[in-house]
Design a protein that fits this description.
The protein is mainly alpha-helical and about 180 residues long. The protein is built from 6 helices and no strands.
């Protein structure tokens, strides 16, 4: 098996380090967050029991942990499922950008960030509302992904040109064989 080639034997376009780094970090973060949101949404009693067990542990016996536990318990299960959808969209967007090199992935990722902003600030609110630093950080990551779009488009254009050239060469070879 040749790494860097697809099953047809054509060379795969190279991804930038920044795209690899962003996409892998995004996928890891959203996979873990998504699983957590999914289980909290489907099994709220497990969350309540976990908080009760941790509240009885000496290392979690202070006011900050109690406030955090109360915040987690104050979120309705359906709100956790909304957060799961956001994580799944961001994961899928990063995967599409990295694997397929399609701008659709960027659009899906950006929509997931806007959706997450709306869920956290307008639906859930309270202590989980995004602060300015989180909003700015999210915008910066979207901008860095947007900067990767030109590389994605360039790689797509280059691979399309290579495919057209290969098709033309194959057609020329067939024409030569037919003329002989």
């Amino acid at each position: 098996m040749n790494i860097g080639f697809n099953p047809d034997g054509k060379q795969l376009p190279k991804r930038t380090f920044m795209l690899w780094f962003l996409a892998i970090c995004t996928m890891l973060n959203n996979a873990m967050s998504g699983l957590t949101y999914f289980f909290y949404g489907l099994f709220p009693k497990v969350l309540r029991q976990s908080v009760e067990v941790m509240s009885n542990m000496p290392m979690f016996d202070n006011e900050q942990y109690r406030q955090a536990f109360e915040t987690y318990l104050s979120i309705a299960p359906w709100q956790y499922l909304l957060l799961f959808v956001m994580s799944a969209m961001a994961f899928a967007g990063a995967l599409i950008m990295l694997w397929k090199l399609k701008p659709l992935g960027f659009h899906l990722y950006t929509i997931s960030q806007i959706y997450g902003f709306c869920v956290l600030n307008l639906i859930i609110g309270g202590k989980l509302a995004m602060g300015w630093n989180e909003i700015i950080w999210t915008i910066m990551i979207v901008i860095v992904y947007a900067l990767q779009l030109r590389f994605i488009q360039h790689l797509n254009d280059a691979s399309e040109q290579k495919e057209k050239q290969t098709d033309m060469d194959n057609n020329n070879d067939i024409d030569l064989e037919n003329n002989e």
